[in-house]
Amino acid sequence: MLSERRLEVLRAIVQDYVGTEEPVGSKALTERHKLGVSPATVRNDMAVLEEEGFIAQPHTSAGRIPTDKGYRLFVDKLAGVKPLSAPERRAIQNFLDGAVDLDDVVGRTVRLLAQLTRQVAVVQYPSLTRSTVRHVELLSLAPARLMLVLITDTGRVEQRMIDCPAPFGETSLADLRARLNSRIVGRRFADVPHLVQELPDSFETEDRGTVSTVLATLLETLVEETEERLVIGGTANLTRFGHDFPLTIRPVLEALEEHVVLLKLLGEAKDSGMGMTVRIGHENAHEGLNSTSVVAVGYGSGDEAVAKLGVVGPTRMDYPGTMGAVRAVARYVGQILAES
Fold first, then answer.
1. Most Cβ neighbours (<10 Å): which of 78, 133, 182, 236?
2. Does residue 322 contact residue 295 with C-beta atoms inside 8 Å?
3. What angle do CA 24, 29, 35 make, to 5 degrees?
4. CA distances from 166 to 139, 207, 320 (A)
5. pLDDT by residue (tens digit) across 73-101?
């Protein structure tokens, strides 16, 4: 275990390196921080930190920089989450309050996160597997053609056209609409199949084929839309950090293009927690992202996350500020979904 003083030295090294982009020496540390000890003692502490693998010496410098292990300890023990200022919070609220639908909410959230953190922002659409049904609408387009509109509690809207095996009258349509909504509104998507399986039997024989066709389309919609969707923004921000990527930025850009990789970064889909995840450097399984850190958190309209959002940037990151911004934006998005 490191002593409190050596933890303070590590904290100072991380803060200085993130702020200045320059390797940090013992003289600079004692000048900038009130460590209460001599440069010689700080040098000794730095030697221990280097021996333990928390800091390293770049070939071209006498100073030291944090390693992935050093950043990990900083995040776990030393970094508080930096709260946003009142003007920042108001700006977030005003920007997100103007959203007109779910696509707009997600699009604005990506732009906002990228601007606040100056990193790459990634926002996952609310997962239908964790959503509930808010309303099902059935509209007649022709005697044997219907439109199914499915609306979720997270504001997601799915539309499907249905060709019926026989003409379906307005009275039967209204009856089906009412019975569907009475059974499945407010219920989780996973519960819908067994709630509607006996519905065709309650209709007249000539209508059962159409009712079964409508239900098949509804259930297909629930299944096919469980695939996760992502929006990414602020990729150009990475160009500001060229020297933070040892060889080239290309592997990072290639990894960011693979949405499967990004979904894994944000956390497994089955993980519905609201807690914050920080993955640093080689903790990211994808080799192209070994020089990056990922800060992600769940968002939702209640205690359970319906999706994740976060940022990807170099390991030399303002962790307290980034964690504060990601958490604040997730909270506002959750509020908007709850009120929508």
1. 133
2. yes
3. 145
4. 15, 8, 62
5. 999 987 778 888 898 888 888 888 888 88
